[in-house]
Amino acid sequence: MQSTDTKIINRRQFLRGDFSEKPVAIRPPWAVAEFAFLDTCTRCNECVEKCPENIIVKAEDAYPVINFDLGGCSFCQDCVAACDAKALSIISVGQSPWGLKADISNECISLHGVMCRSCADSCDEDAITFQYQVGGVSQPEINQKSCTGCGFCVVTCPVDSIKISKENTQEDYDYEHN
Q1: Model-wide pTM > 0.90
Q2: Do 26 and 100 touch, CB atoms closer than 8 A?
Q3: 130 - beta bridge partners?
Q4: Concatenated DSSP letters of 92-139
Q5: Comparing C-alpha atoms, which of 18, 76, 9 is closest to residue 38?
Q6: H or E stretch including 176?
Q7: Which of 3, 51, 139, 140, CA to CA, is 20 to 30 A from 41?
């Protein structure tokens, strides 16, 4: 598997000489591997228009990205159905929509003694639980196996301490090196 310290830059960054460590864009669910996505996506924005949650937006480079500040993904598959170019594609029944997971940072107010469970209340998968602490406020924990990376916890967090992220996958590495 590829090292997690490798950063992906897009063509625009490369041509501008921008080798900064910008985060990898979060593509709509069921997107093909990043390098294949950039080659396949026509930037028609049909997925943006069809998203009932309105979380798929056009990035600066006109490719679609997910903005979890606007809400979470219900995995309705409307974006996949709208993608004629097949940059979004479900290959097999039961295929995971993406390799995204939630992560709670140290800014979480529950970690600082303030009672808050907004993230757990918004998690339909029950992936976020709070472990009781003797003489203190319960502490949040994420069950990474249960987390779908839907992002509904992000928009409800009052202090923006939850991030949804993705590591480069083996498919990204294979496509890059073939």
Answers
A1: no
A2: yes
A3: 140
A4: STT--S---EEEE-TT-GGGGT----HHHHH-TT--EEEE--TTS--E
A5: 9
A6: helix 170-176
A7: 3
Residue 149 to residue 13: CA distance in whole angstroms: 27
Nearest residue to 140 (alpha-carbon basis) of 151, 132, 152 = 132
Q: Where do the domains of the chain lie, and which CATH numbers do they carry?
A: 11-97+167-176 (3.30.70.20), 101-163 (3.30.70.20)
The 10s digit of each residue's pLDDT in 133-146 is 888 889 999 999 99
Question: CA 107, 108, 114: angle at the middle one, nearest 5?
Answer: 120
Q: Determine the Cα–Cα distance for residues 30 and 82; give it in Å rounded to an integer.
A: 12
CA–CA distance, 35 with 32 (Å, rounded to integer): 8
